[in-house]
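#structure-requests
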Amino acid sequence: MTALLTVDDLRVRFPTRTGVIEAVRGVSFTLGRERLGIVGESGSGKSQTGRAIMGLTPSHAEVTGTLSFGGIDLLSAPPKIRRDLRGKRIAMILQDPKYSLNPVMSIGRQIVETLRRHEKIGRAEARERALDMLAAVQIRDPARVFDLYPHEVSGGMGQRAMIAMMLVAGPELLIADEPTSALDVTVQLEVLSILDKLVADRGMGLIFVSHDLRLVSSFCDRVLVMYAGRIVEEIAASDLGNAKHPYTQGLLNCMPVIGADRHPLPVLDRKPEWAL
């Protein structure tokens, strides 16, 4: 498998008045044209890993290591190159469309703006491309939704619009940061189906960030388990139930089981050595 993205010894640190917070500590992995899941509890460094790849880490943070995408060293690349890559070849779906979409711009205008930032096309053609992309993410009556504002659509439709905006320029790598966390179960399945089809049809690489082990095990090809800023286990998604690391086993054991009498649910017994 040819590596689309190579991450080697990635570290993200945040200097504070009381010391340095190490959000990501020596993360390494490669990504081909596959679905890679990154799981872990809140604060484990999942989102910061994705933001470092995108170049969206706050300016006061210290980011070191190697991020190689298509032969480009992302950490040493000039800001213009990073801007040209972001949205065109690398895209990121953020967690909640209510906070990610611009509230004072219509959905269609935001998608068109993304497309015209990276391609020299007229407004009419950009509008048609945007409408086609809205239809591709299973939005009924895309012409109507095109003119709506983010507050006028449901969470599920807003998330579809966000996916459309991130995919309209045809990226090679898509980072989905908990794209279904704010959605109900039926809409989750629809969004995952859309992502699955688009990844398969376009041959993209996908990094799927989540805290839902059950979801990741059924959707992804490989899984990275993060704890305290580092990867503690890498395993095939189909084999997640046979994980060896006690942290992964603890997470799996904490999930409710239909028909089982588990009151109270088990509590994860953390070990200090997991964070070393």
